Amino acid sequence: MDCPKCGRYLGEGMLPARCPHCGANLSNPTDSIRGSKAAASRKNVEGLTGIGKGNTQNKRRRYLQVFIGIVLVVAFGALLYYATSGFGTEGELSVPDLVGWNVDRAEEELAKLGYTAVIEDVLSEDGTSGLVVSQDPEPGTPRPKFSEVTIRVSSSIAMPDIVGKPWAEVKPLLDSQGIAYEVTEQLSSEVDGTVISSSITSGSPIGKSSVVQIYIAKRSTVPNIVGLTPDESSTQLTEQLLKLSTEYVLAEEGQRDGVIVGQDPAEGSSIETGSTVIGKVALNANDFYENAATEVLDAIYNTSPADDGIGVALKPLISPDTDYAEMDAHDLWWNLVKRGGLYEDQPAELQSLPRSIVKSDLTVDPEKGEVTARVTVHWDWTGLPGAGAASSEDTRTVTLTFDRDGKLVGFMDEQTDVPFFKVNE
Question: For residues 206 and 193, what is the distance between their CA atoms, to the nearest angstrom?
């Protein structure tokens, strides 16, 4: 409050009876004694503290003291926050649990807390990549700010392209990348030792626990088929992806009729999958020569002579001990079947009619290796202009002679391979 007379500042609260500066009466006359005492008391206080004198310099000092107090309080609060928030040089925090986090998120979290992330790649168990699988220190461990936290991050290996490549080339590649595998040999038409398939496709991620199943082409092993029937042998060979071709041989003493008595290749041979194994089937003399005669008759009368087809079919049936063996397909047919062109004056179309066997009756002389056949033949005339008929049939007697291996030595058809009709010789 200011003095109403001189304007000096007298402080707040109870006023003195007189202004200490100009002596003005500040109270009622009845209160003069009390006012004088109060004024004297206030004056004594103002003299000690300097407050309430109305001095501008004192007011500034008071404001400065308040400001300094506020600054000190704010500074203390900031220091307290700084020491407990993880950014001080002496404080500690608990390391967070980062296992299962994406590596980028884990790095951000550590940086926010003031830690330095140290990343180590480790091969994952299941082929996943980019996830934290372990950390050091463990979650909850107190750790000074700005210290390192190691996070181990899952990684994987991409399965290389191995199908169609030699195993000798694939094996060192897998070993160098630490890929676990199991190898199974499998019969295949692929080249022996070629990788034909794998349980994990090319480019797929592989983890530490992954085991690749690899299948490698294996050559077939020829089983023993001696003593088996052709049907039994075929079953055995099929299991090795092999095929059977039979050759008939004249049964020797003690050999059972209709079973295989020899084979080529021999048992245990390693051959390309899909190859053919020859089984030599023992037959008694009658069956042996009948079988040989049937093959020759089919080659001549169950076919079409077009493009020397008869000669081509006869080539493998001819005995190597005859002059016919060295002839080409056309000459073989012309000289053996046509008897050197016995009826070459007949039209060419007539010489080469398509034909088929209706029936045949065979008589065997095992001692001579000779077969006499009465063969009924159906002739197709549709390709012969002006023939006047679509087809015809006739029956002819044919004589065939064989060596001991069942190969053809001689052939005789009086009419050769043309239909029966009157021939002008």
Answer: 24
DSSP assignment of 17-84, as one string?
SB-TTT--B-S-GGGHHHHHHHHHHHHHHHHHH-TTS--HHHHHHHHHHHHHHHHHHHHHHHHHHHHH
Tokens of 183: 């190898």
Q: Say if 174 falls within a structural domain.
A: yes
Residue with tokens 């206030």: 42
Alpha-carbon span 369 to 381, nearest angstrom: 35
The two tokens of residue 341 are 């062109």
> pLDDT tens, position by position, for the chain (425 residues)?
677 777 777 766 556 666 766 766 766 444 444 444 444 444 444 444 444 444 555 666 667 777 777 767 666 665 555 444 444 444 578 899 999 888 899 989 999 988 989 998 887 777 778 888 899 999 989 988 889 999 999 888 889 999 999 999 999 999 988 889 999 999 988 888 999 999 999 988 888 788 999 999 999 999 999 999 999 999 999 999 999 999 999 999 889 999 999 999 999 999 988 899 999 999 999 999 999 999 999 999 999 888 889 999 999 999 999 999 999 999 999 999 999 988 888 877 788 899 999 999 999 999 999 999 999 999 999 877 776 778 999 999 999 999 999 999 999 999 898 898 654 44
Decide: 416 and 337 in contact? Cβ < 8 Å.
yes
- Give residue 101's identity as a one-letter amino acid code: W
Q: How far is CA 47 from CA 53, 148, 201, 425, in A?
A: 9, 64, 99, 175
Residue 335 phi, psi (nearest 5): -90, -40
Q: Which residue range(s) make up the domain with 132?
A: 92-155
| Contact between 274 and 219 (Cβ < 8 Å) | no
Q: d(Cα 291, Cα 203) in Å, to the nearest integer?
A: 59
Q: Per the structure block, which two tokens stand in for 117?
A: 């992330």
CA distance 74 to 87: 18
Q: Which two tokens stand for residue 69?
A: 């107090």
Statement to judge: residues 405 and 316 lie in one domain: yes
DSSP 166: B
Same domain, 144 and 183: no
For residue 52, being part of any structural domain is answered with: no
Q: Residues 373, 400: contact at Cβ < 8 Å?
A: yes
Whether residues 203 and 235 share a domain: the answer is no
Q: List the strands of the sheet with 355-365, edge to edge.
A: 355-365, 370-380, 391-402, 408-413
